[in-house]
Design brief:
single chain, 221 residues, alpha/beta, 39% helix
């Protein structure tokens, strides 16, 4: 019998923007983006949660962001600072497991099926990691816990910011069946829009195909 894996996905909350708000008190509580100037065809690299309330998001042209929020603050990226903080956070991960798979400076998967502290609960490990990150960096992270990377990544976005969400083994199949189609990795906005009328979630997709059910494919990821 295969042992159920315990996977955590840690995703820093508005990482670049949160670092700038942490280091510059006058930025706190205000709409801010990290990115290029709107006068120089720049783009948004990260947006604070205050900026997101105006519909601003990463990869948006800075000029568009400025039009949405004329009092928006633009901060220049400081990638050397972000990298140093990211390395510190990865050191925190290594206290629990060496099986760390970074996806970017602000997110990573951790396999804690077997971990250095012998802790049985992946949820408790995730909580401890969140607490350590906040105590040591004054930044928050969201965490998802499940049986594979696919579900853990989806879970980490469920209770942002500074949240934690568990998809337990017995919840995995029904969770995937009701999952909106745009939540599946590789399904972008355009594809989701085309699929949404006939197929809004994974359940009808599984019913329409004679191939392996969609949830079974997802459970293997």
């Amino acid at each position: 019998m295969n042992r159920v894996r315990k996977i955590i996905h840690i995703d820093m909350d508005a990482f670049y923007a949160s670092v700038e708000q942490r280091d510059e008190p006058r930025y706190r509580g205000k709409p801010l983006v990290v990115g290029g100037s709107p006068s120089r065809r720049g783009a948004v690299a990260a947006a604070s949660y205050e900026a997101r309330q105006f519909g601003i998001h990463s990869a948006m042209p800075s000029r568009t962001a400025y039009q949405k929020c004329p009092h928006l603050i633009f901060a220049k990226p400081r990638f050397e600072v972000y990298r140093a903080i990211s390395e510190h956070i990865r050191d925190i991960f290594k206290r629990y497991t060496d099986l760390v798979e970074p996806l970017a400076l602000d997110e990573a998967y951790l396999d804690v099926t077997e971990n250095k502290l012998g802790m049985a609960s992946a949820t408790l490990i995730a909580q401890e990691i969140q607490q350590c990150i906040q105590a040591e960096t004054q930044l928050t992270a969201s965490a998802g816990v499940s049986i594979n990377k696919f579900l853990a990544k989806i879970a980490s976005a469920m209770n942002k910011p500074n949240g934690l969400f568990l998809i337990a083994p017995q919840q995995a199949e029904p969770f995937i069946e009701q999952l909106a189609i745009e939540k599946f990795y590789g399904v972008g906005q355009v594809t989701a829009a085309k699929m949404h009328h006939p197929i809004a979630s994974a359940s009808p997709l599984a019913q329409k195909t004679a191939l392996t059910p969609i949830w079974a494919i997802a459970l293997r990821s």
